[in-house]
Design brief:
The chain is of the alpha+beta class and about 550 residues long. About 20% of the residues lie in helices and about 20% in strands. The structure holds 2-acetamido-2-deoxy-beta-D-glucopyranose (2 copies).
Length: about 550
């Protein structure tokens, strides 16, 4: 194994609410082969299965180089979510670390695991599936200078005056040392809070925590860095004309005071990330010293992106723009091509399937995602065509995370689709007030021109793939109708739901004129009202029609 730097192997990915992307061909081979005799196995690592180190920062965008955040207010406006929801759905018995333990892995985790995983509910029940754990807990999760951690089944410990990154690093190293000493293959998840905004709450009064947001707080030794860094002044940075729909279209231009403060927030994020960078180095030093580095896959990613100033928005992350939904995904490990930037379209729902593949575990039927190809084409290996879409959904409200402005915007509920093919690169969304967005990122990479009919930039003559906009929109809407309620393999191959004959596998295929009448018959994605969560009866039509040959769709009622 040649010496490879982490940054040499870049794979862009989206988040659960996110995209990855490319714009080129999505045709990448699988990293690990399926053996005809013994089923799934991992290749070329000797007898011991490879280890997996999974580092996930919090809200780190890729569009602005590195960004974060997350609201505590949610805990008190949404009654359900995060850890309690996870437990009530039965997932504590049936999720990734449990499956990995069943496959012979030792499993470890430190840092933030869930929203609403708190000093009050951490033991009712305890999180299952970890050999060793040390969780950050609410309401101290985002308090950079007074974090609370909770080890295994011990009570929580608050560390007033200690920096979250110092404590997280110590805990990550201790768990990694345990993992390395165990002699078993291991999975370790490390989830530092940086570069999330700093959030302080009144902990004495749990019912009225009064959360206060401010820029992230770097370690002292990093607080002087990058004094001139500022948010990139791209065309969509605080633009002259408003953009987006719904509450976003109403945002006034940011004044100088806000712009200056947002630049400060941006610098503090970059500084706070230095603590993460050092943590990554510390993990690698231990892996290398143990002799296990060459038998370990290391993933580096973030839970979602972040925006600062784009589209006139103050710091935040609940929108569907590229800043919010694109995140870094870097993978280093045995057989991963060096200096390869993958154009595969992926999201975080693909991570569990990817980890399964690495661990030589057969994929579960109920996986909504698909293993991410980690290797370039090797001679003789068959290549499989990946899908070209990412489903993006949000329910509830958007929140500004600035000390100077922390407004809440209701009705921030929408369904979106990001789709990237050989000759198209589109974002389509339907909001709960039934406003729509369509951006053609080939001609409008900053998402400033909404091409949906009825909006300012719609033009009857604008074509995508040589086809009128309304035709393309019909196809996108039907695809979104399938994706917004898909489960399992339908999420991976949504076109097969619309075209069971298997002759349509992409937006391009679907645009054939012989399908026009069929798509005219589909119901549209729409909402009956805006809800704060996944309330099915507010979400309009659920089932898409399937194309059947021989039906005269233009006469069909
Ligand atoms: C936490 O802070 C105390 C007091 O400053 C210090 O002695 C201790 O070393 C710190 N712990 C860590 C892990 O940084
Ligand atoms: C939110 O949407 C509802 C319709 O579902 C509407 O009645 C209400 O005025 C909207 N609120 C805001 C703040 O836009």
């Amino acid at each position: 194994m040649p010496t490879v730097r982490l940054k040499d192997i870049l794979l862009y990915v989206g988040v659960a609410t996110a995209i990855s992307w490319g714009g080129g061909d999505a045709n990448f081979p699988d990293p690990l082969v399926q053996s005809p005799n013994s089923g799934w196995h991992s290749e070329g690592f000797g007898s011991r299965k490879p280890n997996i180190v999974f580092i996930i920062t919090d809200d780190q965008d890729i569009e602005m180089s590195s960004l974060d955040y997350m609201p505590f207010v949610k805990e008190h406006l949404l009654d359900k979510g995060g850890y309690p929801k996870f437990v009530s759905q039965g997932f504590n018995e049936n999720w990734l670390p449990v499956w990995l333990q069943q496959a012979g892995y030792n499993t470890y985790y430190t840092g933030k695991l869930f929203n609403f995983h708190t000093v009050r509910n951490y033991n009712s029940p305890h999180v299952k599936g970890f050999t060793g754990s040390d969780f950050l807990l609410d309401p101290f999760t985002y308090n950079y200078l007074s974090p609370a951690f909770q080890r295994d089944h011990n009570p929580p410990v608050i560390y007033p005056g200690n920096h979250t990154m110092d404590i997280t690093a110590d805990k990550a190293y201790a768990l990694l040392d345990d993992a390395l000493a165990s002699g078993n293959p291991f999975f370790i998840g490390v989830a530092p809070v940086a570069p999330h905004s700093n959030v302080e709450v009144d902990t004495a009064n749990p019912d009225r925590p009064n959360p206060r947001f401010s820029a992230p707080i770097p370690l002292n030794r990093h607080s002087h860095l990058f004094p001139t860094a500022r948010v990139p002044r791209t065309p969509h940075f605080n633009p002259e004309k408003p953009s987006g729909v719904s509450w976003i279209a109403q945002r006034p231009r940011l004044n100088k005071k806000l712009v200056d403060h947002n630049d400060h927030h941006y610098r503090q994020r970059l500084r706070a990330l230095q603590g993460v960078d050092e943590l990554v180095d510390g993990l690698f030093k231990r892996l290398r010293a143990s002799g296990q580095l060459d038998n370990t896959y290391v993933f580096y990613t973030s839970d979602n992106g972040f925006h600062i100033g784009q589209h006139r928005l103050n710091p935040g992350k609940e929108c569907g723009f590229e800043e919010d939904i694109r995140v870094p995904l870097i993978v280093r490990g045995p057989g991963v091509a060096v200096r390869d930037v993958s154009k595969a379209i992926t999201t975080h729902i693909d991570l569990a399937p990817t980890i399964f593949k690495i661990a030589g575990i057969p994929p579960r039927e109920d996986f909504d995602g698909l293993a991410i190809p980690l290797r370039k084409a090797a001679a003789g290996s068959s290549s499989s065509k990946r899908h070209e879409h990412v489903n993006v959904e949000y329910w509830g409200f958007a929140l500004e995370e600035s000390k100077l402005s922390s407004e809440v915007f209701l009705n921030n509920t929408y369904k979106s689709l990001r789709i990237i093919g050989p000759n198209y690169n589109l974002y389509y969304s339907v909001w709960c007030n039934n406003e729509h967005q369509l951006y053609d990122l080939t001609t409008d990479p900053y998402q400033l021109r909404n091409l949906y009919p009825g909006y300012r930039d719609y033009s009857k003559t604008h074509k995508i793939l040589e086809v009128p906009l309304v035709t393309v929109i019909g196809r996108l809407d039907s695809l979104l109708l399938v994706l917004k309620s898909c489960k399992g393999s339908v999420c991976v191959k949504p076109w097969a739901k619309l075209h069971p004959d298997g002759d349509v596998d992409s937006l391009l295929d679907s645009l054939k004129p012989r399908f026009d009448a069929f798509y005219d018959r589909q119901q549209s994605v729409q909402f009956d009202r805006c809800e704060m969560g996944y309330i099915l009866d507010a979400e309009g039509p659920q089932e898409a029609l399937s194309y059947t040959r021989g039906i005269h769709w233009s006469h069909w009622v």
